[in-house]
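#struct-pred
JK: can someone run the complex with adenosine-5'-triphosphate? inputs below
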Amino acid sequence: MALHQPQDPYLLERSWQRSRDYGLSRHSRVDRLCLLRPDLQQRKQQHAQLLRYLNSSLPLFEQLQQGRRCRLLFADAEGTILFSTGDPYFGSKAQKMALANGASWHEQSMGTNAIGTALSEQKEICILGQQHFLAANHGIGCSASPVLSPSGELLGVIDISSEMGEHNQDMLLTARLMAQAVENALVINQQDTHWILNLAPDAGSLQQPWSGIIALREDGKLLGANRSARNWLQELDIPTMLSELKQGELTPLGQGMALLSRQSRSSSVASPKPAPQARSPVPHEVTALKLMARRIPLLVQGETGTGKDHLVRRLHQASQRADGPLVAVNCGALPTDLLEAELFGYVGGAFTGGSKQGRPGYVRAAHQGILFLDEIGELPLAAQTRLLRVLQEKTVTPLGSHVPEPVDFQLIAASHRNLATMVEQGEFRQDLYFRIKGFKLTLPPLREYKDEDFDRLVRTLLSELQQDDPVSGATVAGEKVLDEPVLDEQVLDETALQTLKAYSWPGNIRQLKQLLEVALVLADGNRIDLEHLPELPRCDGPATGNTRDLKSLGDQLIERTLKECNGNVSAAARQLNLSRTTIYARLKALKNC
Ligand SMILES: Nc1ncnc2c1ncn2[C@@H]1O[C@H](COP(=O)(O)OP(=O)(O)OP(=O)(O)O)[C@@H](O)[C@H]1O
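RT: done, structure tokens with the ligand placed:
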């Protein structure tokens, strides 16, 4: 397609200049900036209402761009993608990453591009192929339209991106219509809206998405307007108009027509949905928090992937030290020769090769917060001795100094190794072990989970993955972070769930999470069933000693149910909630084995 010429001939020039001013060059390597999960969640919550309306307007996108390989994105005013949906297979892996939730498309990081440039210029824009400043983005075409709040501030942009060859001008139109739909919903659904005034040049356009909409309080106070209505605002004498216009009657007004209607209670979604909440702490977290309030050190033990790090992060967020730092140190990853300097800090000139100004070290960095020493079993004995002194004296003396400095931190240590055994073998100091083991929490391996705990975990993981899934992010609506995530039966079928339960999960939650992530993509918006569960390595299930993999577990379930149904495939299909085709496919695969 021919390159689209932006209406303003200097727009691209300005944007390219800004890109250079940001220190970018055309062949700069793209350092994809991506928000960390908690920050992303926080931003989604700030835009929860907007994301809900965007979700409700998706049928418009689906209808207008049906069958096109493109993605619809919403980026906030800082250029960070908070929502993405559409063709999951569009683009290279790198582009998929860049178009995923949390990625930044501000001009500062990405140079000229539709999202960043529409934000800088505050106007809609289409940037195609080589119009992008960075060569890395030459393969794509993007069209973006700003979204404004009812008071006219820039909230973000709606963008449609596709491979360059697939981009067409309808995409800008679709982005514009989506932006208008969202803006209109934001205007109409404001708290206290009583009157809605529609304005248009002629009667036929009055209730089109591009007509003017003004929201008024009962006493006539202006609450907000969409962008078309803002052109009318100066001409309007609202109090007089309200007394003259009759509800539901089409009335000539200036150069156009007006229609006044009352916001009915049922159509009003003005009262905001309850703010999304973080999941409430589970019992062992409550106990841990009580102990932390008394500064008792915690020792978290568990196999790899059982969620030690995850637990510490949740405890930090829920603790009295949430405003303080969480300093997480993997003791096994610290270079042995610098380990003590990194942990306890050093003053300038303490050793050759050190920084001139010295370093505070992780222990001091955790002052008034939490120091999480992961893999504490990997600390050499000398560092163990020093750490013990810090814990006893509540002071730290940096290398090269003689002045002890007071420190106040909550210690949480973790290890996947059995520290008690290490003590017996002389590899870990017994006195340090007792000191850090104020309270020991052992996270069970997944194979030992009770049924209901496994179900709850799968629900949580699926609901989290769906919110952040760069591919099927269509379910993102900001309101999905609920206290108890609901596992929609449409998401995972019972047989698949039973099959997951029967596996022994040597990689624990990490492995389960990865598998569910793949299954969600393979299911592509449909319910996850056996066919979407990827092959997993056979492994010795410590609980049973059996060797088994997921597919064969599912097949066993099918065979057993078929036997119970005397070979009646329809009955077995009904019982397992599977299609008959799936059962036949598995039977055929078994026969060919
Ligand atoms: N309770 C949970 N709910 C949701 N996700 C969890 C939970 N526990 C762990 N996870 C997820 O599982 C993965 C592994 O968890 P984590 O890194 O905390 O394990 P770990 O025990 O610290 O592993 P390792 O010992 O290998 O460092 C992470 O992606 C984490 O977000």
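RT: quick notes.
The first strand starts at residue 70 and ends at 76.
Confidence is low (pLDDT under 50) at residues 1-5, 265-278, 469-488, 539-548.
JK: thanks, will look after standup
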